[in-house]
Amino acid sequence: MEAVELFVATLRGPVGRAYAVAFAHVLRGADLVCTCPLGEPCHADVLLRLANDGDPIRTLENLEGPR
């Protein structure tokens, strides 16, 4: 869980925001898989929310993670 929170915190930074917007554009409508245990927080969940919520910057502000 800590790794996902740190990932979210990184995406909230000035450089991370640019990547978040790029991820959102490229991943919109895609399916992602990973090796995280089911039911546990995952980087793929963060990326999918960014891609499919419509406004990646607003989504970043609403994601769980350290501020």
From TrEMBL:
Official protein name in the record: DUF4326 domain-containing protein
A UniProt-annotated Pfam family: DUF4326
Ranges of residues in domain DUF4326: 2-48
Domain of life: Bacteria
